Each structure stands twice: as C-alpha cells, then as structure tokens.
Amino acid sequence: MSAPLPYRPLDAELATDRLSLTPFQPEDAVAYAAIWTARGGEPATAAQVLDRVPALEHQLADHRLGLRMLRLAGERWPVGYVALIPGRATVDEPELVSELLPAVHGHGLATEAARALADAAWRTGRARLWTTIAASNAASLRVAAKVGFIAQHVTHDERGEVVWSALERPVQ
Fold this sequence. Notes:
- It is built from four helices and eight strands; from the N terminus they run ββααβββαβαββ.
- It is α+β, with helices and mostly antiparallel strands.
- A hairpin with a 7-residue loop joins β3 and β4.
- The chain is globular and about 40 Å long.
- 31% of the residues are buried.
C-alpha cells in the first residue's frame, strides 16, 4: 500500500476577471478536439477525446493535479485548457501546460490562466512547477516568463530544443 500524497486536492474551479477554469465535462469533448487539432495534432473526434481525457483527469486527481478547461467569463464553450501534469517533470514538481484556440491567442489569456493555476498549485502544497517549451515557441516562452518561470536548462527531443523553466512558490 502506498503512502498518501502530502498534497491537498487541486481547486475544482478557478476564476479570473476574464476566465472561468473548470474540470473537463463530456460536453467539452468537441471543443477539446478542436484545441487538440489546432496545435497540429492528429485530427481528433469527440469520441477519441472521451476515450482519453476522463481517464487522464481521474489519474491527475489521484495525484492532486488536474486539467481545467478555459472559458471566457459567462461563455459556455471552452477556448483552451491549462493543466498541471507529471509530464516530463514529476508529481511533486509538476509541469504546467496550456493550449488555446488560435482565435484567442495574443490577448493574455494564457498568462492569466497560468497564473491562476500556479496559485492553485501552491495551495496544494507544492513548492516548484516546471514548463517544457520548444525553443522555437516564442509566444509560450513569453507567457512562461510573464508568469515568473525562469529558464533552467535545455534538452533535445525529436522536434528539437526544449527549454525547461521553473517557478518557485513565493515566500509567504
């Protein structure tokens, strides 16, 4: 039997002035498939999303992590997501990831969502977060810098250079 995690659960819902961040719901599958496809991934169907995302959400919740769909305040359909995942990092120092539909790029929403999720991560008891971003992705690197992530090192994968940046919990 494994020891219980020392972390509190991730807040189920978060809000900023412009965004509502909520857990994935089955009706989000079509929007999530559009987000997935917009980033250049294989075209996805709602059925494929429903096969993958609820199981991922359950696994993340077990680790006190999670995926939150991004909606403009008062709107029904998601325009992106932000998540804390083990990713290339660890359960103790998870990776913050996000994707938005291209139509909402350039309005500061990714920065706003990342800040909200980082604040929620601190409430779980975590002390450090990571991002791993392709060196060629200047927009995501700018978002990470605005949130306070600091580049630590570079690795390489099949697509090229990956910049690893860390964000430390602010001193209280």
